[in-house]
């Protein structure tokens, strides 16, 4: 009799796992510059309860796809800007009426193409 609650708890915990890098449900893409895009995928849709959990990637569609992170679109997101052969990635943080933009990483496009990684 003691084992039944344990199995119920185990099933509940395992079914609640979320793959934060999920690419199962494509949401949108945005052109960053030239042939570079930011792709967004829905990881978890919360409907009317709040923002959706989205995973963000930068890609040229043929040579690489780089994971940027996962975010709640009600609280922020990512912004990408091209400067020469570099992509500057910033995190956008929204708290009520305040918006903060914090640079987090810079990628060299040529190196991303050379590595050819698809994350």
Structure at a glance:
The protein has 119 residues and is an alpha+beta fold. The protein has helices at residues 3-15, 109-115; strands at residues 25-33, 36-44, 53-59, 65-72, 76-83, 86-95, 98-108.
Describe the protein.
There is one protein chain. The protein is of the alpha+beta class and about 120 residues long. The chain is about 15% helix and about 50% strand. It contains two helices and seven strands. It has helices spanning about 5-15, 110-115; strands at about 25-35, 35-45, 55-60, 65-70, 75-85, 85-95, 100-110. Residues about 10-15 have low confidence and may be disordered.
The gross shape turns out to be globular
Q: Proportion of β residues? A: over 45%
Strand order of the largest sheet: 1-2-3-4
Tally of separate helices: 2
End-to-end Cα distance, whole Å, is 45 Å
Give the strand tally: 7
C-alpha Rg, in Å? 18 Å
Average pLDDT number:
83
Helix content: 10-25%
Which sheet architecture does the biggest sheet show? 4 strands, antiparallel
């Amino acid at each position: 009799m003691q084992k039944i609650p344990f199995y119920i708890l185990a099933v509940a915990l395992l079914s609640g796992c979320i793959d934060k890098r999920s690419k199962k449900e494509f949401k949108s893409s945005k052109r960053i510059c030239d042939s570079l895009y930011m792709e967004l995928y829905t990881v978890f849709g919360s409907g009317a309860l709040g923002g959706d959990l989205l995973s963000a990637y930068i890609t040229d569609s043929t040579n690489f796809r780089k994971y940027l992170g996962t975010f709640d679109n009600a609280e922020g997101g990512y912004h990408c800007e091209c400067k020469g052969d570099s992509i500057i990635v910033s995190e956008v943080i929204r708290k009520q009426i305040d918006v903060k933009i914090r640079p987090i990483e810079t990628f060299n496009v040529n190196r991303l193409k050379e590595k050819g990684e698809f994350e």
